[in-house]
Write a structure and sequence with these properties.
The complex is a heterotetramer, with two copies of chain A (266 residues) and two copies of chain B (291 residues). With 266 residues, chain A is α/β, with parallel strands linked by helices. Chain A is 18% helix and 32% strand. By secondary structure, chain B is an alpha/beta fold. The chains are: A alpha/beta (266), B alpha/beta (291). The structure holds flavin-adenine dinucleotide (2 copies), flavin mononucleotide (2 copies) and FE2/S2 (inorganic) cluster (2 copies). The site of one flavin mononucleotide has 26 residues of chain C, from loops.
Chain lengths: 266, 291, 291, 266
């Protein structure tokens, strides 16, 4: 991957066609055919999504703005690209997207943001995912050779997302699948196994634990973060997160950040 | 073609200040952004004399058919803007409007003078939606305060001055009239409506800045009324905005008496909204003489 | 139980004046309306001294997540109200609030005096969102004007006086403070935001009254900010309204400092909205101490 | 029918289930099972309708308010009633309703308003419908014995709604079906046939022509009118129409009015 892993997006919202929407435990895997988009988004980049029909009028008359989603997988399709998104329904926007059926229109802008950089030379890539943060690790794992993937989930239902990976280390809060520990404990053990680069995505507490652990051990880490977004391309200044050198817009300077830039990932 | 304060524009569609960062957008979209640039003139985000970090997050809240923002005018400050942003904005294929805000009349004077010197700049927009720290009055809410601000800066530049009005006033038309009398070349409105949201669990203010500004389709009816009232009162051109999301909306604002319109929040939903609205507008056909 | 100005209410949910006609609703729904009456206190539509026909149609326009109305205060006038409406409203199972508007201070005095004499009436709401034809100032937009109106009517009745504030003001909290100082027992807000719509074909004003008032979820964020600001400024109870459509919305207004909330436009979508919101509110659990 | 033909409505919005939605030329015939509503609405009464899901977020972020619809037919169903509405999609609200599928939720309040009164004694009932104004005449024709039904439509596609009636007099603007005249011309001819009561529903110009013709000939007429409504039960004062004795709220004092109360139906 290049120094700034960013594939440029067409400068307008376009309409893709939903080609699949399957349940995956607590999540949904939604596939769309994006005729007019680039076939080579970079792992960690995201798209702003909205349903073409019926975007609004749900709880509190929302949603209104598009929603940000990391792409989970991309496959060249003639023409364009087939994109897959892993989605957790937690509010009006994700609930609407979770209802999309094959043939429906999916409005999108992207790919956006800066993805994961290549691991440091001569280090093993350790991919750490928590919950829905698993999504961007899927395409990332495909690009790296023999990465070690460590995943943590709330429950067995959520852990079904792990099936998308060949042979991940697995932890669940309730121990229903894999070990009953936090995924960071799996990471601590792996870090004993020699030089590594950590590439992580998940909820803020997990990312902060990963950041602290890597900082302590001097392990290079990249964190794919989240913040509330309105536009996704630097227009609204709404998505800032604090870094050692001030606020940065996560949508144009992230969402993947070198852990060293952060005092905290919370 | 549209004429705004003596400047020829290829059309009537501007962006609302602070709703499109052409420099950041070029990073996301590359130069294809310039090939079919969405606006007929570009308005910069508001700059201040001193650099500002802006408000702590969260800065956004989605509302029914709109949003609240509490951004807090982050910007590099006058010098930073002139040194690093202006040269990049000068590469845009359309005329440049620079938006400035001063917390005192002296600050406003400094901004107008320094920005006015730069030939890359075609027009200057005065964002008067802030309290004058000396008088405590929100400049744009008080006709006299707005008049005094204009009288102070009017002699400092030949460039056309646009006054961006705040909707949080009893009678925006009276403020517009005061601005016209004091030498403003145009007015633009509306800025955001003051609003608030609470954290769903704690009931405490959601926004880092406590309160914020409401924008989007939910404010359109309010904006249209104010644009109509202002256009009836003043002779200078009016730039209308507030929830414009389609050519039909733009048509309404022009019918209400606006010379140009600006697209704000809709840019967030579609980076090409300006261009789309311009073509929908031409398809919709002629705008009747002002109502 | 909720207490409002010394009056016991079975709960905190009122209706916004002019958004529920209990007499007409009884014709449509029969006495089943009374068995499970949607509100804990009933606020009448605003009455004036003289009868009014109201504005010519069209009077309605739907907006994104809201609407504009230009009704024009049709009512039977003071005598007609006292003679034919009041006896029917007295049959409602909840305390009665009568809303009055005067175009002069004398008119306001007449209304307060005559309505205050009737024991069917528990509270009086002063709708001050209209221009004083003598001074030309919108009473509710100007603290001094509001104070003078209150000083005039305060001595005329023992009944609690609620001042209904207009949101079309620079600083509603200042108006509320002036009302409190002059003897108001409570304030209610927000009234509708001034707005406008154009005919889709002609581009001329759609509403018979040319401009109208915007209400519904689209104004909620603006209302919540004003309620929060007013509740921080005054010690008297605040009745919060503006786009409340769910128990969660009601919870927000109470968290912002309101003692009671009122349901307006949502009544049009569901005649039982008040009751539904009350039960959603109790399900949502305790409201944190005012923010 | 009683002196004020009004069946009372339950005092809340309730949810009915869509059981059918078929195309009928330019219109759609939507059937819903209203479990909790009265089985005996009166012809001319109406319901305020909204889709339970996805009411909003269409053109201009609308619809938001419910929409008024005369019921076209009602059949007792255990429990409650099966209601049919004839619908013309002309904007965001009717477009959304036209998309409803069997099983979807239909939010409704009603029956509302005052329906048609009984024809004057010893007169023939002449039912006159224009376009979508045909809807309330369907249940009305069922209640009367041997009424004469006269219908006018823009085109043959619209005229397909006439198939719902046994043997109507038919006129279309383009003459594609029935005679190429205005329906009021059919009415003029029928009025030669002796004492009649005219019961009409249709666009304002048609109603005004009917009103004027009947006034001239001293024929009693009832007109089912339309106006923009927000609530449907007298709460908003938005639906007023001018009458000889001032503005009246069409939703509580109408929608069916004695023609004599109007100076004009325009
Ligand atoms: C770069 C990036 C990548 C992402 N990738 C994925 C992904 O691959 N899969 C996935 O499922 N999710 C992903 N997300 C998260 C996803 O964008 C959010 O879950 C989604 O926006 C939620 O929208 P909603 O309407 O369903 O929920 P909302 O109602 O918007 O709630 C989401 C959160 O926002 C807050 N909130 C509540 N109400 C409001 C309001 N009115 N306005 C503003 N905030 C509110 C609350 O904290 C709530 O928890 C990503 C986010 C980012 C920034
Ligand atoms: C008593 C009664 C009975 C009815 N019965 C039937 C029936 O049986 N079948 C049927 O198909 N229809 C019926 N109607 C008409 C139906 O209610 C309307 O067609 C419907 O409300 C249109 O809604 P819409 O969103 O599809 O269109 P809208 O966009 O609401 O447009 C409808 C009309 O309203 C105006 N308009 C446009 N935009 C707006 C706006 N933003 N706010 C307000 N007005 C606007 C225009 O004049 C437009 O022609 C009846 C109406 C009434 C009052
Ligand atoms: C995120 C955001 C940031 C804004 N920043 C500015 C600003 O810096 N200066 C300014 O004059 N207006 C600013 N505005 C106001 C817009 O220019 C515009 O006046 C307002 O949003 C109404 O238009 P809209 O509804 O189309 O967005 C901002 C609006 C938003 C939503
Ligand atoms: C159709 C309509 C009529 C109204 N009439 C009155 C009125 O007569 N007096 C008054 O004080 N407020 C009146 N209001 C304002 C409401 O009481 C309320 O303050 C406002 O609508 C905001 O609340 P909402 O968004 O919940 O509707 C009216 C509002 C509407 C929509
Ligand atoms: S989401 Fe708008 S600037 Fe990042
Ligand atoms: S529709 Fe509201 S009063 Fe008739």
């Amino acid at each position: 991957m290049g120094s700034e892993p960013r594939t440029l997006a067409p400068p307008q919202r376009r309409s893709a066609t939903v080609v699949g929407n399957e349940e995956l435990g607590a999540y949904r895997l939604i596939a769309a055919h994006d005729r007019d988009g680039p076939a080579d988004p970079r792992p960690g980049q995201f798209y702003m999504l909205a349903a073409v029909e019926g975007w609004g009028g749900r709880s509190d008359e929302r949603p209104y703005l598009p929603r940000a989603f990391s792409y989970a997988r991309a496959r060249p399709a003639e023409p364009g690209v087939r994109l897959e998104f892993l989605l957790e329904a937690i509010g009006p926007g994700t609930e609407r997207l979770a209802e999309l059926e094959a043939g429906d229109g999916l409005a999108l802008v992207g790919p956006l943001g800066i993805g994961f950089r290549a691991p440091e030379p001569d280090t093993r890539a350790l991919l750490v995912g928590g919950g829905i943060g698993t999504a961007p690790l899927l395409c990332l794992a495909e690009e790296l050779d023999e990465p070690r993937v460590l995943l943590g989930f709330r429950s067995g239902e959520h852990a079904k997302a792990a099936r998308l990976f060949p042979d991940p280390g697995l932890a669940t809060d309730d121990g229903s699948v894999g070990r009953a520990v936090l995924v960071t404990e799996l990471l601590a053990e792996e870090l004993e196994g020699g030089p590594a680069t950590v590439l992580a995505c998940g909820p803020p507490p997990m990312l902060e634990a990963v950041r602290a652990m890597c900082a302590e051990r001097g392990v290079p880490a990249q964190l794919a973060m989240e913040s509330g977004m309105a536009c996704g391309f630097g227009a609204c200044f709404g998505c800032v997160v604090p870094t050692r050198d001030g606020y940065i817009r996560l949508c144009v300077d992230g969402p993947v950040l070198e852990a060293g830039r952060l005092e905290s990932a919370l | 073609m549209t004429e705004l304060c003596g400047i020829e524009l290829r059309g009537p569609v501007l962006n609302g200040s602070g709703t499109f960062d052409a420099i950041a957008a070029r990073r996301a979209f590359g130069d294809s952004l310039l090939e079919r640039f969405p606006f007929d003139a570009f308005v910069s985000k508001t700059i201040t004399v001193e650099p500002r970090e802006g408000n702590p997050p969260p800065r956004l809240w989605e509302t029914p058919a709109g949003m609240i923002n509490s951004i807090g005018l982050p910007n590099k400050g006058l010098e930073g803007f002139l040194a690093s942003d202006l040269p990049q904005l000068a590469e845009l294929p359309v005329p440049l409007v620079v938006s400035v805000m001063g917390f005192t009349r002296d600050e406003l004077a400094t901004l107008v003078e320094r920005v006015g010197e730069r030939e890359e700049v075609e027009l200057i927009e005065l964002n008067v939606s802030c309290p004058n720290v000396e008088t405590g009055l929100v400049m744009g809410a008080d006709p006299a305060e707005t008049g005094r601000a204009l009288e102070r800066v009017r002699p400092l530049t030949q460039k056309p001055l646009i006054v961006k009005l705040t909707p949080n006033a009893v009678d925006p038309a009276a403020v517009a009239a005061a601005a016209e009398t004091a030498g403003a070349d145009a007015v633009s409105l509306i800025n955001t409506l003051k609003g608030m949201a609470l954290h769903p669990r704690t009931g405490r203010p959601w926004l880092g800045g406590v309160t914020g500004g409401v924008s989007g389709p939910s404010v359109r009816a309010v904006a249209l009324e104010q644009v109509h009232a202002v256009a009836e009162r003043v002779g200078i051109p009016v730039i209308g905005m507030g929830g414009i999301a389609s050519g039909r909306d733009a048509w309404d604002f022009l019918a209400a008496g606006a010379t140009c319109i600006a697209v704000g929040t809709e840019n967030f939903r579609d980076p090409a909204a300006g261009r789309r609205i311009a073509s929908e507008l031409s398809e919709r056909g002629p705008v009747p003489a002002g109502v």
